[in-house]
Amino acid sequence: MATCVTRMGWRASGAMSKSSSIYPRILPSAPAFLSVPNSIIIHTQKRSLFVLPYGLDVGLVGITAYFMTKLRRPEPSNVVSVFGPEPGSKESEENPDKVVRCIAHRGAGLDAPENTLEAFKYCVSHDCNMVELDVRTSKDGKLVLLHDQGLQRLTGSSISNVHIMDWDSIKNIDVGLTHPNRAQFKEVHLCLLDDALDYLLQNKVKVIIDVKGDNQQVINGILQAFASRPDLYKSAAVTCFNPFVLYQIRKRDPDIVGALSYRPYCFSSMDFDAEQGAYNPRYGDNLVVHSALRAVDALHALVWRWCARWCSVSAVLLHKDIVSPNEIFYWRSLGVRCAGWCVNRPLEKLYWRGVLKAPYLANTLLGEPEITEKQDEIEGPHRVKELE
């Protein structure tokens, strides 16, 4: 009796599945007569399946994953509470004092030592109702206000990474040694996030917390800060250049108001402006690494807007030299605020206020119309006496 072996053969085609047909196929080595004992008959089953064109199936899976994992937005009232009414809206005309125009970048770091309690006190004394600060962690998990990874720029020291230093070993270092106004601010020390938030909330100042680093310590610390201070949900927003860090924070607490920061060539270069473009490369001595980072920059430029929408941000913080009226209109059409950094020149501030009608981050409060008017009122009588 012949031995039968069944083999299933699947054949894909663009048509819908049809009825299967089974037919015998005799191996070439098998004898012509089926009655021969050692003959082998293979039955092959023919089936057709519906298969999407190449790449379309991957795209559909990606789009499905995007919408399934996309975060929800926080309460709109919290967004308005943090960023104020939309400039140019009816509410902003009825409540002009609530409109956020100037955000003190690092606590107005050109006027006072950046990211310090003294800088925030300076902002409060100049009636600035919103500040931005940077947060990273020390070795023992303390949330330290510091923009750079190390302290070389601020102190001239050799400490290149505070993440490998305990808080006790850096808390007494004077971070105002290299500041232009160091004669006015003496013995200025690093500040912890908890101390800064307590002071700013007490003085009803809104905060943008810029998260530096991607370790779980800083993520957990931000979440703990909001959990222990419910008022922060209406007074603070969290921003980051890394959308995956922001996603982790907002996924665990979607009520936190989120913002995404962006500038061109942020992976390959340390600095960027309209006049020079990208300069001060991070790995200028290694052409291979620099070229790879430029490729990452190009990819980043294509996907960062989708990342912002994926994180359901309420604001984007963009380099001022890439912001145009069309860019602001695009984000406003999505219900997202758009702010620029760093806007320091008086004429630039007037342009942002009068033309773009959008908030901006500034390293200095000098040149602000409100502050200039206040100074004129204070110094007016003295100037009159000097003229007399």
Automatic annotation (TrEMBL):
Q: Does the keyword Transmembrane apply?
A: yes
Molecular function (GO) terms for this protein are: glycerophosphodiester phosphodiesterase activity
**Is the keyword Transmembrane assigned to this protein?**
yes
Transmembrane region(s) = 49-68
Q: Point out the coiled-coil segments of this chain.
A: none
- Report the Pfam families cross-referenced here: GDPD
Give me the Gene Ontology terms describing cellular component: plasma membrane
One of the GO biological process terms:
ethanolamine metabolic process
Residue span(s) of domain GP-PDE: 100-353
- Keywords assigned: Membrane, Transmembrane, Transmembrane helix
Protein name (database record): GP-PDE domain-containing protein
Q: Which organism is it from?
A: Arctia plantaginis (Wood tiger moth)
